[in-house]
Design a protein that fits this description.
Layout: H1 23-26, H2 32-42, E1 48-52, H3 58-63, E2 69-73, H4 77-88, E3 97-100, E4 113-118, H5 127-139, E5 141-149, E6 160-170, E7 173-185, E8 188-199, E9 202-214, H6 218-227, E10 230-234, H7 236-239, E11 251-255
Parallel strand pairs: 1-2, 1-4, 2-3, 4-5
Antiparallel strand pairs: 5-11, 6-7, 7-8, 8-9, 10-11
Helix pairs in contact: 5-6
């Protein structure tokens, strides 16, 4: 297994610092409902769950009601704040959901779970950290449990200049997300997100986030899963069935 990079963040390096509150508005695409359903429907009724990178909690709030308990590992303090704020308004989840400041792949909770899932995280994980991440997932998977993930894709990284992706209004304010993508290597792109806030037509603030976007190809992912004793068994990354989730690269694995 290769050397594992440190994927922790600080208040200075957290890419979500200034824009976490806009994330649900500007980063939720048309396939979001299907993807949420994919992860929620896999959750075993009354079982235990582990979520890696819950962000603002889109998956968390759909999965948690089906489980007896759910642990969430989130490295971003800003994302944890959004998630905990949502949970504060849901007393029925007060005893179910535990949110921890943890970064993958180097985590150890000393227990196992029936359901382990990773959504919208792989783009942040370099390929040389992937097998260590899978080893951590396998270590925390109970006998008979399943692992679910997305972003296992064969797509070519596109190249496009900055363009507006989404725009939403709240009162007299308008919030926009513009994105540019530059391929660096076949499995690595450089992404620039520009967030703008307008009051009526006056530009108030601009925040720019630049980061790497890592691609995880199915064949390499399957090999790394098998190396830690997990076998791919379902998902569009495996079957290519032409469903609305095709572009999400979903995958389910079980212990061999």
């Amino acid at each position: 297994m290769e050397t594992v990079p440190d994927l922790t963040v600080t208040s200075d390096t957290d890419p979500y610092g200034a824009v976490a509150g806009l994330y649900d508005w500007l980063h939720v695409g048309p396939g979001s409902t299907d993807l949420v359903s994919f992860f929620a429907e896999l959750a075993p009724e009354g079982g235990t769950g582990l979520e890696i990178g819950p962000g603002t909690g889109r998956m968390t709030l759909a999965v948690a009601p089906r489980l007896s308990s759910l642990y969430c590992l989130e490295r971003s303090a800003f994302m944890r704040t959004i998630l905990l704020t949502k949970l504060a308004s849901l007393p029925e989840l007060r005893e179910k959901v535990t949110v921890l400041d943890e970064a993958v792949p180097g985590f150890s909770l000393g227990r196992t779970f029936d359901y382990v899932y990773v959504s919208a995280v792989f783009e942040h994980v370099p390929p040389d950290a992937r097998q260590a991440l899978f080893a951590g997932l396998a270590e925390h998977l109970a006998p008979g449990g399943i692992v679910a993930m997305d972003m296992v894709e064969d797509e070519v990284i596109p190249r496009f200049a900055e363009r507006e992706i989404r725009s939403v209004r709240q009162g007299d304010c308008r919030y926009t997300l513009s994105t540019a993508v530059t391929p660096v290597q076949p499995d690595l792109g450089q992404v620039r997100h520009v967030y703008r806030t307008y009051l009526n037509d006056e530009l108030l603030t601009t925040h720019t986030v630049e980061r790497e976007h890592h691609m995880h190809r199915p064949a390499a992912v399957f090999a790394d899963l098998r190396a830690v004793g997990l076998e791919p068994v379902a998902g569009t990354a495996l079957t290519k069935t032409g469903t609305p989730l095709d572009d999400k690269g979903t995958l389910v694995a079980k212990r061999v």
